[in-house]
């Protein structure tokens, strides 16, 4: 049931773009994206809901393909502050449980 | 304002001992969650409280793990007879309503790092 994230790691230079993917084998109600810096709390980035609604805090875009049960997070013109591990969490209905992927480690170098 | 607060930030214990980990959610948040994060892994769901009651405890690994939230605010995760495999970062999160997972945002604390020797 755990979603699969790809790539596992990516290294960028400041200003470059990246795409992080998340796929599930089961139908999804919503997909959540969080970023976690080393030793810190995961921080909410965005939620994508079935039906097309999106809610987020930052200038980060994402897509949600309900039929393919996939989501992608698009990081454009990356900044040093984007470095961290990105997790997708999927909500499949039922209880209030998010199932997280193993994460994608993003490193942005000057 | 204050975020989710977890204490202790670090706990080292010996195999077989009992530990308690505390979570103080954001004031007014009715939903509270415990997750466990092992090295190199994403957070793994343990238990969810709506108010004082555990609405879903399906993620607790076995009966050595127990959590309470007696007044609908602070929560304590209790682990009996700790084992080396319990070593992990235990994360607490809160949400303003019980729809935090379905439609909204979880606010995570920085976690309690548990090391069982």
Verbal overview:
The complex is a heterodimer of chains A (110) and B (117). Chain A is mainly beta. Chain A contains no helices and eleven strands. The termini of chain A are far apart. In chain A, 40% of the residues are buried. Helices cover 3% and strands 47% of the residues of chain B. In chain B, strands 2, 4, 5, 6, 9, 10 and 11 form a seven-stranded mixed beta sheet that branches. A four-stranded antiparallel beta sheet of chain B has the order 1-3-8-7, with no helix packed on it. In chain B, a hairpin with a 6-residue loop joins strand 4 and strand 5. In chain B, 37% of the residues are buried. The model of chain B has no long low-confidence stretch (mean pLDDT 94). The interface between A and B is medium-sized, with 26 and 31 residues.
Short summary:
The complex is a heterodimer of chains A (110) and B (117). By secondary structure, chain A is an all-beta fold.
Write a concise keyword list for the protein shown above:
heterodimer, A: 110 residues, mainly beta, 4-stranded antiparallel β-sheet, 11 strands, 0% helix, globular, B: mainly beta
From the alpha carbons, calculate the radius of gyration of chain A and give it in angstroms.
13 Å
- Main beta sheet of chain B, described? 7 strands, mixed
Helix content of chain A: under 10%
Q: Outline the low-pLDDT stretches of chain A.
A: none
- Oligomeric state of the chains? heterodimer
Strand content of chain A: over 45%
How much of the polypeptide of chain B forms β-strand, as a percent range? over 45%
**Through-space gap between termini of chain B:** 36 Å
Rg calc of chain B: 13 Å
């Amino acid at each position: 049931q755990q979603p699969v994230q790809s790539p596992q790691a990516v290294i960028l230079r400041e200003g470059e773009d990246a795409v992080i993917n998340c796929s599930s084998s089961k139908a999804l109600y919503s997909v959540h994206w969080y970023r976690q810096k080393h030793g810190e709390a995961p921080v909410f980035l965005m939620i994508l809901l079935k039906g097309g609604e999106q809610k987020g805090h930052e200038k980060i875009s994402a897509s949600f393909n309900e039929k393919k049960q996939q989501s992608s997070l698009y990081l454009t013109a990356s900044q040093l502050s984007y470095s961290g591990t990105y997790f997708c969490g999927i909500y499949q209905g039922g209880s209030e449980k998010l199932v997280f992927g193993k994460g994608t480690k993003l490193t942005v170098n000057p | 304002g204050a975020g989710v607060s977890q204490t202790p930030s670090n706990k080292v214990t010996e195999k077989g001992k009992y530990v308690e980990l505390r979570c103080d959610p954001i004031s007014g948040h009715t939903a509270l969650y415990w997750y466990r994060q092992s090295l190199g892994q994403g957070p793994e769901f343990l238990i969810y409280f709506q108010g004082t009651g555990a609405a879903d405890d399906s993620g607790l690994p076995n009966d050595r793990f127990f959590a309470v939230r007696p007044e609908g605010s602070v929560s304590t995760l209790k682990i009996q007879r700790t084992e080396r495999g319990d070593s992990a970062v235990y994360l607490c999160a809160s949400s303003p309503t019980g729809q935090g997972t379905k439609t909204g945002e979880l606010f995570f604390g920085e976690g309690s790092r548990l090391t069982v020797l």
